[in-house]
Amino acid sequence: MKGSLRLNDGAELAYDVLGSAGPWVVLLHGWSGSRRYFDLNAPALAASCRVLLPDQRHHGDSARSPHGRHVARLAADLRELLAALQVSDATLVGTSMGCAVIWSYVELFGEERMSKAVFVDQAPLQNRVPGWDLGSKGCNDEASLRALCDTLNRDVGEVADGNAEGCLSLPIPPAVSALLRSETLRCDGGALGELMRDHTQLDWRALLPRIRAPCLVVAGGRSGCFPVEGCLFAAEAIPDCSAVVFERANHWLYLEQPVEFNSLLLDFVARGNAGRPKVARVADPGVCTSRIQDRTFSEAAVAKLRGAAVAQSRASASPRQPGAAVGRECMPSIHSTRMATVCASQLLRNRPAASPAAVPPGAAAAAAAAALHLQHGLHAAGPAANAAAAAAVAAAAAVARAAADPVLPPRPRGGAGGAAGPPLPLQLPPGVVADFERRLGADARSVGAALAAVTGAITYWRGLWALLDHFLGDSVAGDAACMLVGLSVILVVRLSGVRVADFWPSG
Q: Which residue ranges traverse the bilayer (predicted)?
């Protein structure tokens, strides 16, 4: 449902409401964004929650008033909106500047209509001041603010491009990237500059210990905007607060890893911080709602992977490129070559060679996904296991390639009365197969390089042993010298900080 609210100063506030039942979740976008920034999150959340997405003043479809260019006005707008829609016991989710709006709301109005809060990648003070160097990595003093305002007055598009460069570490669908840029271009540069001037100097550190609602801090491990420690400061200061660090993601982590973020948010809405560690970390992007830990990888686990790939492709892919997201953020993290083997066997067992259409929905995608991330398993397994897994995945790739354009023909929709029929099948973009083959070749070269390195090391140490034996003889002194040499090499490697994984080609 789309709506608009006339606020007490006459300005219009645009909003969407998704979902018809369940607890309220309010998504507050950041500076220069809009409610469209949550296109990869809101539909999934709306399956079990009522989701409210306002365009904050000066953004999106909301008013561009000549006044109210400060965070406190945005907090007052939020209060009016919650009251008008009779929202209660809501989980307020702020991303970037949206966090400051929530902190201002709590300072001005307490915790009315709010049951929980989530703060995504924002330090409680953006400027850097004496005794505080955990603020913004970019706009953190008068000089950097003035430079930003000059750029905004000159070309908002330059700021939009800078946002994407500084806020993303993992790839997102091109259609989403274009949408983010277009939403920023809708903003008035002067209003953004004044809003940022107010936002950067606000210090919320003293407020945090007064928050009594359960809270969750989510930080990007590769954030281009804030150091992780700056975001985690809030988790330490708020009495009932936990934190999760998305180690490979940036400031826009909810766009880079939407499935993991959605799952985390739904879990927090349902049970708060019960049973949650103070700080947890999400290491890799993937399609599953939680990382698979079962190393046996039963058929049920593969079915879960396949279903998640189908669901995420529907949520993320653009109409012109069905399933395009499968090649990007939807690929699962495979921490064992066993997953690739099972995916391949599942695919081959369920598809007769003469019938490409018999491939189960998403099965080819699951196999290709396993292949694309096989290097995670290769780094943890030995050469023999690598070779076996590579052979299994190669077989899966052949089937995936045969069914790749498209994987399955569209199924007819439903019966009488417009009822929905079986789920639409997943279409695998041809580029996924090409990328799989490239990565598989790189992994094969990685195995060869490892074998060559091991052979060289054995030969080298055999020669060194013979040389020491020649000079020192078979004596206690010779044995002691060999031990000393070995310990010296280990010490040098240890002090150099080199990790074993660094010897593997990146693929």
A: none
